[in-house]
Amino acid sequence: MSTIHCRIVTPHGVYKEMDTSILNVVTLSGERGILPNHVPVVIMLKISRMTTVENGQRIEYAIAGGMLYFRDNTAEILTDAIESKDEIDVDRAVAAKTRAEKRLSSGRPNLDQERAEVALKRAINRINVVQRH
User: Fold this and answer.
1) What is the H or E stretch that residue 18 is in?
2) pLDDT digits (tens, 9 = 90+) for 46-85
3) Phi, psi of 73 (to 5 degrees)
4) pLDDT confidence of residue 108
5) Any idea where the domains of the chain sit in the sequence?
C-alpha cells in the first residue's frame, strides 16, 4: 500500500514525521482528503481538526491553521501549533475559551479583536477534537 510521508513543523521545530495512508485537512475552501499520488498542491489550512491513518489507526489532531505543501507523496505542514487528541489538556482549553470570551465581551477600546477571536477559535477547536467520538 502506498503512503504519504508527512512532516509537521511548528516554530519550535519538527513536531512529528510519520507515514499515513490518508491526510484529511480543512482548507479555506472546504474539507480535503489527500491520498497517495495526489496532484501537487499548496493549500492554506484553517484552524480545524486534522486526521491521519498511521499504522492502521486513525489519529486526530487539533491544528492551528497553516500551510500544506504536497508533492511526490511527501506532505509538509507548517503550523503555529498542533496537538494530537491525546495531548490536549481539556481544562486548559476550557480556561482559554473562557478568557477569550471575556476579552471579546469586555468592550475595551484597545482590545486586539483579531487576536482574541483566533484564541477563541483555537480553544473551541481543541475542545471539539477531544469531545468528538
Assistant:
1) strand 13-20
2) 999 999 999 999 999 999 999 999 999 999 999 999 999 9
3) 60, 30
4) 78
5) 4-85, 89-131
Phi, psi values for residue 112, rounded to 5°? -80, 90
Question: What's the CA gap between 92 and 38, in Å, rounded?
Answer: 37
CB 22 within 8 A of CB 52: yes
Residue 41 CA, distance from chain mean position? 18
Nearest partner of 8 among 48, 53, 50, judged by Cα = 50
Q: Where do we find the cell 473562557?
A: 98
- Rounded CA gap, 8 and 67, in Å? 10
Overall pTM surpassing 0.85 (yes/no): yes
**Contact of 50 with 79, CB cutoff 8 Å:** no
- Superfamily assignment of 89-131 in CATH? ATP synthase delta/epsilon subunit, C-terminal domain (1.20.5.440)
Fold of the 4-85 domain: ATP Synthase; domain 1 (2.60.15)
